[in-house]
Protein backbone atom coordinates (compact mmCIF):
# COMPACT_ATOMS: atom_id res chain seq x y z
CA UNK A 1 0.00 0.00 0.00
CA UNK A 2 1.25 3.49 -0.85
CA UNK A 3 1.87 5.90 2.02
CA UNK A 4 -0.75 8.07 0.29
CA UNK A 5 -3.47 5.55 1.12
CA UNK A 6 -2.63 4.97 4.78
CA UNK A 7 -4.68 7.76 6.36
CA UNK A 8 -1.64 9.58 7.69
CA UNK A 9 -1.36 13.12 9.00
CA UNK A 10 0.63 15.16 6.50
CA UNK A 11 2.35 18.49 7.12
CA UNK A 12 2.95 20.64 4.03
CA UNK A 13 4.61 24.04 3.94
CA UNK A 14 3.35 26.43 1.30
CA UNK A 15 0.24 24.35 0.74
CA UNK A 16 -2.32 27.14 0.45
CA UNK A 17 -1.81 27.93 -3.22
CA UNK A 18 -0.29 26.73 -6.48
CA UNK A 19 1.43 23.36 -6.55
CA UNK A 20 1.07 22.97 -2.79
CA UNK A 21 -2.69 23.37 -2.93
CA UNK A 22 -3.24 20.80 -5.68
CA UNK A 23 -1.00 18.32 -3.87
CA UNK A 24 -2.90 18.99 -0.64
CA UNK A 25 -6.21 18.39 -2.39
CA UNK A 26 -5.17 15.05 -3.87
CA UNK A 27 -3.62 13.75 -0.65
CA UNK A 28 -6.72 14.71 1.33
CA UNK A 29 -8.96 13.07 -1.27
CA UNK A 30 -7.13 9.81 -0.53
CA UNK A 31 -8.10 10.00 3.14
CA UNK A 32 -5.15 11.66 4.86
CA UNK A 33 -5.44 14.68 7.12
CA UNK A 34 -3.36 17.55 5.77
CA UNK A 35 -1.98 20.40 7.86
CA UNK A 36 -1.17 23.39 5.66
CA UNK A 37 1.58 25.63 7.04
CA UNK A 38 1.83 29.17 5.73
CA UNK A 39 2.51 32.79 6.60
CA UNK A 40 -0.61 34.35 5.10
CA UNK A 41 -3.66 33.76 7.27
CA UNK A 42 -6.06 34.86 4.55
CA UNK A 43 -4.65 32.33 2.08
CA UNK A 44 -4.73 29.59 4.73
CA UNK A 45 -8.34 30.34 5.59
CA UNK A 46 -9.36 30.32 1.92
CA UNK A 47 -7.65 27.00 1.22
CA UNK A 48 -9.10 25.33 4.31
CA UNK A 49 -12.58 26.64 3.54
CA UNK A 50 -12.41 25.42 -0.07
CA UNK A 51 -11.22 21.92 0.80
CA UNK A 52 -13.28 21.47 3.96
CA UNK A 53 -16.41 22.31 1.96
CA UNK A 54 -15.67 19.16 -0.05
CA UNK A 55 -15.51 17.05 3.09
CA UNK A 56 -11.73 16.84 3.18
CA UNK A 57 -9.71 16.76 6.41
CA UNK A 58 -7.59 19.89 6.15
CA UNK A 59 -6.34 22.31 8.80
CA UNK A 60 -4.38 25.55 8.53
CA UNK A 61 -1.41 26.37 10.73
CA UNK A 62 0.16 29.79 10.59
CA UNK A 63 3.94 29.62 10.70
CA UNK A 64 7.08 31.01 9.10
CA UNK A 65 10.08 28.99 7.89
CA UNK A 66 12.38 31.92 7.12
CA UNK A 67 14.67 31.95 10.17
CA UNK A 68 16.23 29.14 12.24
CA UNK A 69 14.41 30.18 15.42
CA UNK A 70 11.07 30.30 13.61
CA UNK A 71 11.67 26.82 12.17
CA UNK A 72 12.56 25.34 15.56
CA UNK A 73 9.47 26.91 17.12
CA UNK A 74 7.31 25.68 14.25
CA UNK A 75 8.67 22.14 14.59
CA UNK A 76 7.98 22.15 18.33
CA UNK A 77 4.44 23.45 17.88
CA UNK A 78 3.61 21.01 15.09
CA UNK A 79 4.93 17.92 16.88
CA UNK A 80 3.07 18.94 20.02
CA UNK A 81 -0.26 19.53 18.29
CA UNK A 82 0.09 16.72 15.73
CA UNK A 83 2.26 14.03 17.36
CA UNK A 84 0.82 11.48 14.93
CA UNK A 85 2.13 13.36 11.85
CA UNK A 86 4.48 11.18 9.81
CA UNK A 87 4.79 13.02 6.48
CA UNK A 88 6.58 16.31 5.83
CA UNK A 89 6.31 18.02 2.45
CA UNK A 90 8.70 20.96 2.01
CA UNK A 91 6.92 23.02 -0.62
CA UNK A 92 7.24 26.66 0.49
CA UNK A 93 9.22 28.67 -2.03
CA UNK A 94 9.84 32.07 -3.59
CA UNK A 95 11.14 32.87 -7.06
CA UNK A 96 12.48 36.30 -7.91
CA UNK A 97 13.98 37.98 -10.92
CA UNK A 98 17.46 39.05 -9.83
CA UNK A 99 19.80 41.29 -11.82
CA UNK A 100 23.17 40.28 -10.43
CA UNK A 101 24.64 43.61 -11.54
CA UNK A 102 21.70 45.62 -10.27
CA UNK A 103 20.77 47.01 -6.89
CA UNK A 104 18.95 43.98 -5.46
CA UNK A 105 19.17 44.25 -1.65
CA UNK A 106 21.28 41.45 -0.21
CA UNK A 107 18.58 40.84 2.38
CA UNK A 108 16.24 39.84 -0.45
CA UNK A 109 18.74 37.30 -1.72
CA UNK A 110 19.20 35.88 1.78
CA UNK A 111 15.43 35.52 2.20
CA UNK A 112 15.25 33.50 -1.02
CA UNK A 113 18.08 31.27 0.23
CA UNK A 114 16.42 30.88 3.62
CA UNK A 115 12.98 29.88 2.33
CA UNK A 116 14.03 27.74 -0.64
CA UNK A 117 17.09 25.97 0.76
CA UNK A 118 17.80 26.47 4.45
CA UNK A 119 14.20 25.78 5.51
CA UNK A 120 13.77 22.38 3.81
CA UNK A 121 17.21 21.24 4.96
CA UNK A 122 16.53 22.32 8.54
CA UNK A 123 12.99 20.94 8.77
CA UNK A 124 14.01 17.67 7.12
CA UNK A 125 16.74 17.05 9.68
CA UNK A 126 14.52 18.05 12.60
CA UNK A 127 11.73 15.69 11.59
CA UNK A 128 14.08 12.86 10.58
CA UNK A 129 15.78 12.84 13.98
CA UNK A 130 12.42 13.06 15.75
CA UNK A 131 10.89 10.17 13.81
CA UNK A 132 13.95 7.97 14.23
CA UNK A 133 13.85 8.58 17.99
CA UNK A 134 10.13 7.75 18.06
CA UNK A 135 10.55 4.76 15.72
CA UNK A 136 8.07 6.28 13.26
CA UNK A 137 7.77 5.26 9.62
CA UNK A 138 8.16 8.69 8.04
CA UNK A 139 8.11 10.37 4.65
CA UNK A 140 10.04 13.52 3.73
CA UNK A 141 9.15 15.04 0.36
CA UNK A 142 10.57 18.26 -1.06
CA UNK A 143 9.66 20.29 -4.13
CA UNK A 144 12.63 21.27 -6.29
CA UNK A 145 12.37 22.27 -9.97
CA UNK A 146 13.34 21.32 -13.50
CA UNK A 147 15.51 24.43 -13.20
CA UNK A 148 17.72 22.38 -10.87
CA UNK A 149 19.26 20.96 -14.04
CA UNK A 150 19.00 23.86 -16.54
CA UNK A 151 18.87 27.31 -14.90
CA UNK A 152 16.73 30.23 -15.97
CA UNK A 153 19.26 33.06 -15.93
CA UNK A 154 16.80 35.77 -14.88
CA UNK A 155 16.22 33.90 -11.58
CA UNK A 156 19.75 32.80 -10.64
CA UNK A 157 19.25 32.54 -6.88
CA UNK A 158 16.08 30.47 -7.19
CA UNK A 159 17.75 28.07 -9.62
CA UNK A 160 20.82 27.75 -7.41
CA UNK A 161 18.69 26.93 -4.36
CA UNK A 162 16.80 24.22 -6.23
CA UNK A 163 20.01 22.68 -7.59
CA UNK A 164 21.44 22.64 -4.08
CA UNK A 165 18.26 21.16 -2.64
CA UNK A 166 18.30 18.42 -5.28
CA UNK A 167 21.85 17.54 -4.21
CA UNK A 168 20.85 17.56 -0.53
CA UNK A 169 17.93 15.21 -1.20
CA UNK A 170 20.24 12.63 -2.74
CA UNK A 171 22.51 12.79 0.32
CA UNK A 172 19.59 12.69 2.75
CA UNK A 173 18.13 9.65 1.01
CA UNK A 174 21.52 7.92 1.16
CA UNK A 175 21.99 8.68 4.88
CA UNK A 176 18.49 7.46 5.70
CA UNK A 177 18.58 4.32 3.55
CA UNK A 178 18.84 2.06 6.60
CA UNK A 179 16.13 3.98 8.47
CA UNK A 180 12.38 3.72 8.10
CA UNK A 181 12.06 7.09 6.36
CA UNK A 182 11.27 7.52 2.69
CA UNK A 183 12.81 10.54 0.90
CA UNK A 184 10.97 11.90 -2.13
CA UNK A 185 11.70 14.67 -4.62
CA UNK A 186 8.94 16.42 -6.57
CA UNK A 187 10.38 18.10 -9.67
CA UNK A 188 7.93 20.37 -11.50
CA UNK A 189 8.55 22.14 -14.80
CA UNK A 190 7.26 25.68 -15.28
CA UNK A 191 3.67 25.48 -14.03
CA UNK A 192 1.01 28.17 -14.33
CA UNK A 193 1.06 29.56 -10.78
CA UNK A 194 1.67 32.86 -8.98
CA UNK A 195 5.15 31.79 -7.78
CA UNK A 196 6.70 34.95 -9.27
CA UNK A 197 3.71 37.08 -8.27
CA UNK A 198 0.24 37.48 -9.80
CA UNK A 199 0.40 36.46 -13.45
CA UNK A 200 4.10 35.71 -13.06
CA UNK A 201 4.15 32.34 -14.87
CA UNK A 202 1.70 32.07 -17.76
CA UNK A 203 3.70 29.97 -20.23
CA UNK A 204 3.85 26.86 -18.07
CA UNK A 205 1.94 23.61 -18.06
CA UNK A 206 -1.57 23.27 -16.69
CA UNK A 207 -1.50 22.87 -12.91
CA UNK A 208 -4.04 20.04 -12.73
CA UNK A 209 -2.40 18.09 -15.57
CA UNK A 210 0.93 18.31 -13.75
CA UNK A 211 -0.67 17.25 -10.46
CA UNK A 212 -2.45 14.27 -12.02
CA UNK A 213 0.80 13.01 -13.53
CA UNK A 214 3.07 13.37 -10.54
CA UNK A 215 0.45 12.13 -8.08
CA UNK A 216 0.10 8.90 -10.05
CA UNK A 217 3.88 8.48 -9.82
CA UNK A 218 3.83 9.15 -6.09
CA UNK A 219 1.15 6.49 -5.62
CA UNK A 220 3.33 4.13 -7.64
CA UNK A 221 6.07 4.55 -5.03
CA UNK A 222 8.51 6.60 -7.13
CA UNK A 223 11.13 8.51 -5.14
CA UNK A 224 11.72 11.12 -7.87
CA UNK A 225 8.66 12.43 -9.69
CA UNK A 226 8.89 14.90 -12.55
CA UNK A 227 6.86 16.05 -15.55
CA UNK A 228 7.62 17.10 -19.14
CA UNK A 229 10.94 18.94 -19.52
CA UNK A 230 11.68 18.42 -15.83
CA UNK A 231 11.51 14.67 -16.44
CA UNK A 232 13.98 15.05 -19.32
CA UNK A 233 16.37 16.91 -17.04
CA UNK A 234 15.91 14.40 -14.22
CA UNK A 235 16.65 11.39 -16.41
CA UNK A 236 19.61 13.05 -18.11
CA UNK A 237 21.15 14.12 -14.81
CA UNK A 238 20.58 10.75 -13.18
CA UNK A 239 22.06 8.86 -16.11
CA UNK A 240 25.09 11.14 -16.13
CA UNK A 241 25.99 11.10 -12.44
CA UNK A 242 24.30 8.19 -10.63
CA UNK A 243 27.17 5.76 -11.18
CA UNK A 244 29.66 8.33 -9.88
CA UNK A 245 27.45 9.11 -6.87
CA UNK A 246 27.22 5.43 -5.97
CA UNK A 247 31.00 5.03 -6.37
CA UNK A 248 31.74 8.02 -4.11
CA UNK A 249 29.29 6.86 -1.45
CA UNK A 250 29.77 3.11 -1.39
TrEMBL record:
Keywords annotated in UniProt: NADP, Oxidoreductase
InterPro entries: NAD(P)-bd_dom_sf, Sc_DH/Rdtase_CS, SDR_fam
Any single Pfam family the record assigns to this protein: adh_short
Residue ranges of coiled coil: none
Gene Ontology molecular function: oxidoreductase activity
Family per similarity comment: Belongs to the short-chain dehydrogenases/reductases (SDR) family.
Name of the protein in its database record: Uncharacterized protein
Species, as recorded: Physocladia obscura
Lineage, opening ranks: Eukaryota, Fungi, Fungi incertae sedis, Chytridiomycota, Chytridiomycota incertae sedis
Amino acid sequence: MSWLNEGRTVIITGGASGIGLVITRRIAQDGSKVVIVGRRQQALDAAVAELSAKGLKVEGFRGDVTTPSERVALFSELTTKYPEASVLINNAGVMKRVDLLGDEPWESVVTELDINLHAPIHLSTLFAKYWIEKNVSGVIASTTSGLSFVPLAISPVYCATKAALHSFIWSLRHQLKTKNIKVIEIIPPAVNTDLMGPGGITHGVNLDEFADDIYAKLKNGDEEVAYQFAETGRVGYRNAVLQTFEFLNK
